[in-house]
Amino acid sequence: MSKHSQSEGIGRRTAWSGTALFVLLIPAAAKLALHLLTVRGYGIHGDELYYLACSDHLDWGYVDQPPLSLLLLHMQRLVFGDSLLSLRALPALAGSLTVLLTGLLAHRLGAKTFGQLLAELCALIAPAYLAVSHIFSMNVFDLVFWLAALHLIVRIIDGGAPTLWVWLGLVVGLGFQNKLSILFLCFGLAVGLLLTKERRSLFTPWLGAGVGLAALLMLPNIIWQATHGWPTLEWMANARSMKMVSLTLPAYLLEQVILMHPLTVLVWGAGLVSLLFYRSLARYRSLGWCYLIVLAMLVGQGGKPYYFIPIYPLLFAVGAIVIERSLKAGWARAAVAVVLLAAGAALAPTGLPLLPPEGLIKYSNALGIHASSGERSAQGRIPWFFATMFGWEELVAKVDDVYRTLPPEDQAKCSIFCRNYMQAGAVDFYGWRYHLPQAICGHNNYWLWGLRGYSGEVMIVLGGKVDELKQYYEDVTEFGRFEDEYIQPIHNNLPIFVVGRPKQPLALLWPKIKNYI
Are 63 and 445 contacting, i.e. CB atoms less than 8 angstroms apart? Predict the structure, then answer.
């Protein structure tokens, strides 16, 4: 029993039974099976190609991300190779763990079997969680770190041992090395606790120990940032000013409804209201404040809508308890579960590649539900998340066609210049099959990797205009264009040039090519 008085059903954990644990494992297993069955999908995502390139260059930091997920990817590739199943097995497992941890959080907060299952079903059907668990990225691990931190803070609020602050420091430190956004959660939790009576839990030397451990784990990345001129801060500033779309509060909340599934708003909305206003949840009010504080920060800074999705398992867990206490009849509970599953199946193609491309286009247009990319770039026929899963191997084959037209002496000194890290990642990942040169690029970490031993005397250039290239090269010839009806417009109708006889060494131009965005 915690130091708090506990009312029936909320904040009072139910005893475990074999049946209850089995019920919790069912949605988690279904999540894993669903992702393994759809692992191939439409192909490798453009961001995955960049992650693959970064995992070949292990470091303590990168322009646009910390190193932990890339270390995991590197180790995974060493053991299992580069198949799609290998690439996407860890995200599928992390997604399954997210569902299970959501149910366990509901149990921690006092949900009985139905409440735990309801919370898990919400996490299972959320389109955003389907999407992030389908591809390799730091975002799927971010869900796990936020959930682990929320489990610990709930235990601390419930009167758990103060040494839990050290474990929270471990989670935050590792979470920081995965994605910086966990700092939003830390700030929201700190302010939320200070605004409520639970601030008393802060007055312990173990908090200092936890903060110290988190800082120690963060230090290698911070040192890397300092020695490289704080590239992530530059990248964030450029993204806010040149790439991200600034949404109003109502528009941002609408995106949350779409990302989490319109039907689950009844659960997470009930969870938020309960945290903020129910007397029986007063000791968890800091978590409601946390939601509002992080929301205000992301809206104010123009953060992408999906940055906020790791907070919702908490609201699913609390909302599931409220609904469980309101619905006593077994038939009503069964109806809720069936409706949720049916509604989740109806929107599953918006998060997973379940339909052929033309079918997806028709389906998306018929639904009229389109989650924002959070960026200003033009969108094509296919929803933005799926559009970057098309055309990459075909692009590299087209580049190879151009490369084979060059005389041997030019092939020996040729490099391939790409406009962004997706194109460069594709050249590096698929290019070895064609014995192509490595890609060079000014985008994000590719700029830090520099010229990679190439002089720039002869280059294949992807994208751009003749007049632009003639400012730097005497010889500029367009050899063809890459087209794919489904890929994002920024990659489509892409001219492929061969340039030669530079007007100045490429090494002198390189500082101007930097594009942190």
Answer: yes
Residue ranges of alpha helices (H) inside 327-485 are: 330-347, 357-367, 384-387, 392-403, 408-413, 421-434, 445-448, 466-469
| Whether residues 252 and 346 fall in one domain | yes
Q: Please give the distance of CA 176 from its chain centroid, rounded to a whole number.
A: 14
Give the span between the Cα atoms of 140 and 48, in whole angstroms.
Answer: 13
CA dist 118 and 319 (Å) reads: 9
pLDDT interval class at 6 (50, 70, 90): very low
Q: Are residues 318 and 412 in the same domain?
A: no
380 close to 488: Cβ distance less than 8 angstroms: yes
457, 412 Cβ separation under 8 angstroms:
no
Residue 221 maps to a domain: yes
The residue among 100, 88, 93 whose CA lies nearest residue 25 is 100
Query: What is the span of the domain harbouring residue 152?
Result: 18-350
Same domain, 246 and 321: yes
The pTM of the full predicted model, rounded to 2 decimals, is 0.93
User: Does position 374 have pLDDT exceeding 80, yes or no?
Assistant: no
400 within a domain of the structure (yes/no): yes
Q: How many domains, the chain?
A: 2
- The Cα angle at residue 398 between residues 394 and 401, in degrees rounded to 5: 140
One-letter amino acid identity for 179? K
CA-to-CA distance for 296 and 267, rounded, in angstroms?
21
Q: Give which of 503, 477, 373, 491 is closest to 443, Cα–Cα.
A: 491
Q: Which of 131, 96, 95, 132 is nearest to 354 (CA)?
A: 131
What is the reported pLDDT for 242? 84
For residue range 379-390, what is the model confidence (pLDDT) as tens digits?
888 999 999 999
**216 and 113 belong to one structural domain:** yes
Helix (H, G, I), strand (E, B) or coil at 95: helix
Q: Determine what percent of the chain is predicted with pLDDT higher than 70.
A: 95
Same domain, 291 and 412: no
The 3-state DSSP class for residue 457 equals coil
- DSSP assignment of 176-215 equals HHH-TTHHHHHHHHHHHHHTSGGGGGG-SHHHHHHHHHHH
- In the numeric block, the tokens 């990659």 are attached to 491
Q: What is the pLDDT of residue 12?
A: 58
One domain for residues 168 and 274: yes
Judge if 346 and 407 occupy the same domain: no
